[in-house]
Design goal:
The protein is mainly alpha-helical. It is built from 4 helices and 2 strands, in the order E-H-H-H-E-H. The protein has helices at about 10-35, 40-70, 75-80, 95-115; strands at about 5-10, 90. Strands 1-2 form a two-stranded antiparallel sheet.
């Protein structure tokens, strides 16, 4: 059975995916770190430390696979930063597609977690 190829627009990579990754990195490094430090019980602290490590590992995997995408499509991505009308769809390999889906899911999960903490 042939798997349908996944794609993402260059515009989405530059103006949606990368900013969300930067936001997630900041949230993990600040919000979760503060939450760990201010946890009232050992169980809470352990839970948030575990979440922080989980998010950091997931972000690392996502970044490694997206680095491949950014290198492969460097010219197309540069073109869309110069002129948004030059947007094109980029074909994703299996690892890149997994990274994009993981990034979207992790962003939603982190948003839900930070909203619940506020």
């Amino acid at each position: 059975m042939k798997q349908a190829s996944a794609s993402i627009s260059a515009y989405e990579v530059i103006y949606d995916l990368i900013p969300k990754l930067n936001t997630m990195k900041k949230e993990v490094n600040t919000t979760l770190k503060v939450t760990v430090e201010t946890s009232k019980t050992a169980a809470q602290k352990a839970r948030y430390e575990s979440l922080q490590k989980e998010f950091e590992l997931e972000l690392m995997m996502i970044r490694l696979n997206l680095e491949h995408l950014l290198n492969r499509y460097e010219n197309e991505l540069e073109a869309v930063t110069q002129d948004k009308r030059r947007d094109v769809y980029l074909s994703l390999d299996a690892h890149e597609a997994t990274a994009v889906e993981s990034a979207k899911a992790l962003y939603q999960r982190l948003q839900a977690l930070t909203q619940a903490e506020r």
